[in-house]
């Protein structure tokens, strides 16, 4: 099972993109990774928190999970499929 499948099934979410310092190219070793995420209608706060913990463990860096529903301004947004 791919990590994308795990995120969809276990956390009821789909990562849509990266934003923040990584996109602006002003990130550094202590920067967090800002991820824009779509959560399914059935997702709750624990899905959000547990997804963040899961990603931090897997990627070994600080992760900021932001729900696209709660994000009003999507400036500096990079769709996930365009990342190489």
Average pLDDT score: 86
Shape: globular
How many strands? 4
For the record, the CATH architecture stands as 2-Layer Sandwich
Key features of this structure:
84 residues; alpha+beta; Beta Polymerase, domain 2; 4-stranded mixed sheet; 4 strands
Structure write-up:
- There is one protein chain.
- This protein is α+β, with helices and mostly antiparallel strands and 84 residues long.
- It has one domain: Beta Polymerase, domain 2.
- The chain is 33% helix and 26% strand.
- The chain has 3 helices and 4 strands.
- A 4-stranded mixed beta sheet has the order 3-2-1-4.
- Helix 3 links the parallel strand 2 and strand 3.
- The chain is globular.
- It starts with a helix and ends in a 5-residue tail after the last strand.
SSE arrangement:
Layout: H1 3-11, E1 13-19, H2 21-24, E2 33-39, H3 45-59, E3 63-67, E4 77-79
Parallel strand pairs: 2-3
Antiparallel strand pairs: 1-2, 1-4
TL;DR of this structure?
This protein is an alpha+beta fold and 84 residues long.
């Amino acid at each position: 099972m791919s990590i994308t499948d795990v995120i969809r099934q276990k956390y009821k979410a789909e990562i849509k993109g990266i934003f923040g310092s990584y996109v602006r190219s002003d990130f550094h070793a202590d920067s967090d990774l800002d991820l824009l995420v779509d959560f399914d209608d059935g997702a709750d706060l624990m899905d959000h928190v547990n997804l963040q913990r899961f990603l931090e463990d897997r990627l070994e860096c600080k992760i900021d999970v932001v729900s696209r529903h709660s994000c009003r301004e999507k400036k500096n947004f990079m769709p996930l499929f365009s990342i190489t």
